[in-house]
Amino acid sequence: MEEKKSASVIPGKYLLPFVLVTTLFALWGFANDITNPMVAAFKNILLISNFQSSLVQFAFYGGYCFMAVPAAIFIKRFSYKTGILLGLALYATGCLLFIPSGWMMAFWAFLISYFIMTCGLSFLETSANPYILSMGPEETSTQRLNFAQSFNPMGSITGMFVASHFILAKLNAASEEARRVMLETDPEQFAAIQQADLDVIIGPYMILGIVVLVALVLFAISKLPRIKGEDDNVVNFGATLSRLLKTPKYVEGVIAQAFYVGAQIMCWTFIIQYAGTQLGMEKAMAQNVNIAAMFIFVSSRFICTFLLKFFSPGGLLMTLAIAGFGLVCVTIFSKGNPDAGALIQGYIDQSAETGGLVGYIKGLFTGLFKVDGTAGLLSLVGVSACMSLMFPTIYGIALKGLGDDAKLGAAGLIMAIGGGCLMPPVQGWIMDQNAVNLGFTTLTSTAASFVLPLICFVVIAIFGFRTSNVHGHKY
Predict the structure, then answer these.
(1) Whole-prediction pTM value?
(2) DSSP three-state, residue 246
(3) CA 433, CA 51: separation in Å to the nearest integer?
(4) How far is CA 74 from CA 78, 120, 416, in A?
(5) What is the CATH number of the domain that holds 239?
(6) Which of 199, 356, 385, 463 has the highest count of CB atoms within 10 angstroms of its CB?
(7) Using CA atoms, how far apart are residues 411 and 269, in angstroms rounded to an integer?
(8) What is the tens place of the pLDDT at every residue in 277-323?
(9) Phi, psi angle pair for 437, to nearest 5°
(10) Domain ranges, residue 115
């Protein structure tokens, strides 16, 4: 096995634009992962079902799906920079609409805010991903996108941290059952607690909106280079779509991307419910476990980007999908321990003398590895290492060799983010059902619901196999 001949991943003339555009990856990562825990938060605050609360993800990822093609046409007609500016404007608007949504105490208003926000994110992703691919030689495009995408989880980690420490930890501690009793016995107190909790949610989104407005100004005054072919602003939608649909590698890539995004969102959104149902963990503690998963995701992204120097993208993708399948199987069939959360908290308390974040992390992971019944949760955390390579690699494989058709092609791959729109509500619906008796074992509905990510990894593995063995990209 020979190492691939090295080529410039980021040519010097594109370095500064590359750095600026790469900041966008962190911005939408923050939005994605401050939002995932809100599914559990809204469920408790508004006393709604798992299915209803998962409509947060339907609205959030629905914006991606709805706006992807209009965004691609707009970018083709104007420029990548103009697409980025409009995306940032919509992103900021959606964030700031959380303020009146909270005042109205209306779930539908929050859903509209999420939808507008992600219409903006759709513009950003449709612009930034192909723009990064174009900033250098085509043979290093997948490596370049993987490197840029490596900064996306940094925004995600920040979003998770804010969700854990500035939202979930500050919400009223009353359980869902206690709130239902309060609604019947003292509706005024319930309404006051509900409003206070919604105010907690509003704050970080308001600050995020201000940060995005600052980014909008920065991009507006910056000079971004026009890429070869960008001056051709004629939109031949029908002809381009026809060529794309006749490219099997691209069509399969769109399908694989939809299943990947579905798997990612389901694993990261419902890890809180899994930890609560299977291990009796509080939401804030479960979200801290999710943060650890994201750190693993980040580390694995850099490792996998390095491994792409030695292995084909499709082959590595297939290997990681198979590993993800195995880990989700453990998550589904592992027996939980309803006392695990309290026992882990005991280890955290024992580490209090270490102090601060270090003591918390030491106690948390000591508990996770010593307390019985945590194998399923640890496997779910491990899935993040397998997922780290997938989005940019599928994206790069699907768009490679498309030339200027990549602009509309990118829209199809952003539409594929709709997998995160459709699958979480289905998983939420499964979680609302009764336990599943398989004869040889009985699964909680929460554990059984992870059959959906399991199916997703099968589809991704098939795409990786076909990329390596059918479309001509071997080890």
Answers:
(1) 0.78
(2) coil
(3) 10
(4) 6, 13, 19
(5) 1.20.1250.20
(6) 463
(7) 25
(8) 999 998 888 888 888 888 898 888 888 878 877 888 888 899 999 99
(9) -95, 115
(10) 12-222+235-337+372-469
